[in-house]
Design the sequence.
């Protein structure tokens, strides 16, 4: 779970909204200009299915596999990537790939007026930031879905009070963005 205080390209989440095409187009440009082949592109979906608010990453990872995205996917409902196995997963990636292009995917907390937004940002994701966890930064780019807002109450309470409807809509939107970007990029690297 990240904390979104930095700026980036974001849209309000609605899987049927045309704005998803804007982020898909940006992601497609990133992929095409990178020169990477599909097998060198990784979607690292971080989170845990033990908390509704933190389940965005594993939901996205599972849906990406179901959509047979032509890239590598780490982090699903069956095999989540979370605080306890993130370092091990990163070692596994480093062992298998020389220098992959990594898009990290995670849920985040932020301002109340941004709940339901999806952001695509350049640079690494800082997982666990909202819960004050110290974890390694991951990714060349990151995609975050704003699942809930920060309040004076402990952040963990907001993860547990997050609506599944919000998380599912965010997951559908992120998957739509990624599938549009990767399918339209195939064969053009």
Sequence:
């Amino acid at each position: 779970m990240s904390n979104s205080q930095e700026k980036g390209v974001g849209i309000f989440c609605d899987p049927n909204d045309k704005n998803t095409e804007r982020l898909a187009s940006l992601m497609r440009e990133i992929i095409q200009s990178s020169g990477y082949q599909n097998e060198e592109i990784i979607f690292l979906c971080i989170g845990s299915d033990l908390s509704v608010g933190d389940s965005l990453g594993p939901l996205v990872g599972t849906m990406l596999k179901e959509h047979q995205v032509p890239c590598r996917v780490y982090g699903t409902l069956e095999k989540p990537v979370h605080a306890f196995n993130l370092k091990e997963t990163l070692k596994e990636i480093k062992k298998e790939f020389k220098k992959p292009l990594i898009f990290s995917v995670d849920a985040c907390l932020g301002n109340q007026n941004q709940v339901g937004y999806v952001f695509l940002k350049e640079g690494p994701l800082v997982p666990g930031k909202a819960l004050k966890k110290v974890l390694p930064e991951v990714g060349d780019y990151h995609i975050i879905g704003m699942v809930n807002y920060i309040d004076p109450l402990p952040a963990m309470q907001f993860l547990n009070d997050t609506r599944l409807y919000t998380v599912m809509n965010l997951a559908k939107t992120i998957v739509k963005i990624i599938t549009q970007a990767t399918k339209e990029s195939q064969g053009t690297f």
Q: What stands out?
A: The chain has a mean pLDDT of 86. The longest strand covers residues 101-110. The chain has one domain: 2-184.
